[in-house]
Amino acid sequence: MVEILIAEHAGFCFGVKRAVKLAEESLKEAKSRIFTLGPIIHNPQEVNRLKNLGVYPSNGEDFKEGDTVIIRSHGIPPEKEEELKKKGLNVIDATCPYVKAVHEAVCKLTEEGYFVVLVGEKNHPEVIGTLGYLRACNGKGIVVETLDDIKEALKYEKVGIVAQTTQNEQFFKEVVGEIALWVKEVKVINTICNATSLRQESVKKLASQVDVMIIIGGKNSGNTRRLYHISKELNPKTYHIETAEELEPEWFANVKRVGISAGASTPDWIIEEVKNRIKEICSGQLVS
Amino acid sequence: MVEILIAEHAGFCFGVKRAVKLAEESLKEAKSRIFTLGPIIHNPQEVNRLKNLGVYPSNGEDFKEGDTVIIRSHGIPPEKEEELKKKGLNVIDATCPYVKAVHEAVCKLTEEGYFVVLVGEKNHPEVIGTLGYLRACNGKGIVVETLDDIKEALKYEKVGIVAQTTQNEQFFKEVVGEIALWVKEVKVINTICNATSLRQESVKKLASQVDVMIIIGGKNSGNTRRLYHISKELNPKTYHIETAEELEPEWFANVKRVGISAGASTPDWIIEEVKNRIKEICSGQLVS
Description:
Two copies of one chain form a homodimer.
Chain A: E1 3-6, H1 14-28, E2 34-37, H2 44-53, E3 55-58, E4 68-71, H3 78-86, E5 90-93, H4 97-111, E6 115-119, H5 125-136, E7 141-144, E8 158-163, H6 169-182, E9 185-189, H7 195-207, E10 212-216, H8 222-234, E11 238-241, E12 257-262, H9 268-283
Parallel strand pairs in A: 1-12, 2-3, 2-4, 4-5, 6-7, 6-8, 8-9, 10-11, 10-12
Helix pairs in contact in A: 4-5, 7-8
């Protein structure tokens, strides 16, 4: 029998898994139409699956009193949430707890007298949400996307630094170091989520223990390609697929152990499909 | 007439100037022998000048009750100061206020629950003094001299970072960035003194405004050589000397404006000697 091992951390991060689960649970009690404010994840298959169950992505234009609205894992500004509630909508907050921690951090830093630097992408929904919380607690601050952006912060004596949860670590490090040089007092609350690095670490552990590694995820997904390259270096028999249909039986000839990992936008059920397809392929083969 | 301009920041830093002044003032009220605990500055001429006035460098072995002891700008551990006082010595604390700020910072960080990282040289007298203050306020911490040293700090959730006042900025930046990546919360109090960078900025300003630049300081003094190179780039007629005797009259032929700067170990009176010698040279010449 072939043994199939799934990497300890693979596919959806904790926050996205939780948001999808909340969406599914909302269906059980649904007496109204259910929407997510924006697509719940950057994966059309998963969005479609939820649509078929009765959870529709929306930009908010078609909301009516009594509808259920799910705030996705990125979070939204508090004034936006207030607006939804005022419209008589039933709001389910699926904001990732790690993102909530950023909202809390910017207000804690504000209370302690720090000017806030949020290292992240100016147009990212998570950043827009966090800036809303900063405004709501009367904080002052900026988003830093390039090193040039830090200038404004250098006017202040006390600067507090946080990051978008998916921030690149190398750039965060540079920003913190640079600001610490110019400013009297800096407080850093590292709010970067380790989902990406855990996923990579798990692939490293698994790749050398198996005969074949299968990496699932969009061919144009940066984080999936990175997993593929990490695995390929440790195990030349690494394959990158988007769906179970792409699995080739010859990859599994005389194979005893197969490892699977997946990029951040891959739901568990796609991982399961791949696992089952591999089992099928291998059960129809003679394993030495 | 030749015009001689001295760089706004040149020679001794604020802390060393202050220590020398305190030593000179102690002479006025002296009813006892006066010592400095260690040489007051890394400049034999200045140490000799003070010795001739009656202030002797000492390692402490020859102290007797009633003697006056000056703590130099580097500072010392509080238990060491206590020991001096118990011996019945008259202690004059010439610790640089910027170094005192580091002592206060490590205790403030300790109170706030931070494990302390002091970026600096393990055997530097200033660092040894600061570690004494950290012990005295029951703080925990380490000195970080190479990036390898940070490992111990990564075990803690809250790390507070300060620096030896003469710390290299680039390394400080790297340490802060690296620790901020690995630790949940980091507070940085930048205790690096800007004397060195002010001295360099002043040379930059002056060099291009004068016909000739004279840089005074030890030929093997790193900070003096750096001043020389900065000036030389902006003004090819830059000369590096140790004393007034090295001045060559031909450097000042047809010269209207002369600029002077000096490294960190050069006392004002040596700068004055150079200035006066240049005046003498130029007054004996025809200026076009």
